[in-house]
Design a protein that fits this description.
This protein is an alpha/beta fold. About 30% of the residues lie in helices and about 20% in strands.
Amino acid sequence: MNCTNLINSVIEGDCIEVIPSISESSVDLIMTDPPYSLGYDFENDKLSYAEQGAFMAKYLLRMYRVLKDGGTACICMSQEMSHFLYFVGLGSGFVWQNEIVWHRDGGQMPKKKFGICHEIVMIFTKGENHKTFNLDDVRVMSKYAETDKRLNKAGKNPGDVWYVPALFGRKQERIKDDLTGKAIHPTQKPEGLFIPMVKAYSNPGDIILDCFCGTGTVLKVAKDFGRNFIGIDISKKYCNIARKRIGS
Ligand SMILES: C[S@@+](CC[C@H](N)C(=O)[O-])C[C@H]1O[C@@H](n2cnc3c(N)ncnc32)[C@H](O)[C@@H]1O
């Protein structure tokens, strides 16, 4: 299968089998949210530590092959599993760039230890540096901008801790089942988490791959910002939801 046939489509299948059909060095940015072994009711979310490590190695090696030189891979992960991700990523040939702390509120609030209120997005590149890093498109205002005249008036580098509220209990962005009114996917991510990554690490017309696309959040953001996308999910139900969401 030629990569151009897959552009702006959502493919139903196991990404371990589908990614090899994408041409080598053809993707500008990989932005994806794999199963974290949290025990949710979707494929590969109940893996043991050993199985999770083996699964990561399979998808990371395949991702590395399809990424262009200097392309960026942004991989969401739980705090616990992010340690595996770091080492398996290096072992797959990637260069580590950042660990974005997604401060998201909500989540587990245990009684005998502090609450788990952040997740990780690990940022790797194929090669030493990002081929694209549009800092001016993602600058944020410093709280000292009014008083400290030395600061860049265009804003500052956003750093690596991002507060983006999760979709728990939020009504608008969450995709719900028409009949039951319940959330259709247990781990739908907020679009706001991916927007700065799309803007910083890609340009209009670039190709973004999400091989665990779920409801299509990454694909929606890619489309909104004029990027091309390839989505893969093993679930027919989620592929159909993603297609509907992006109007394809
Ligand atoms: C954490 S969810 C992604 C949620 C997505 N970011 C969203 O906002 O809706 C992970 C997804 O990976 C899919 N999945 C699990 N194993 C897979 C595999 N081997 N190949 C492709 N998709 C897979 C699941 O069906 C699930 O939708």
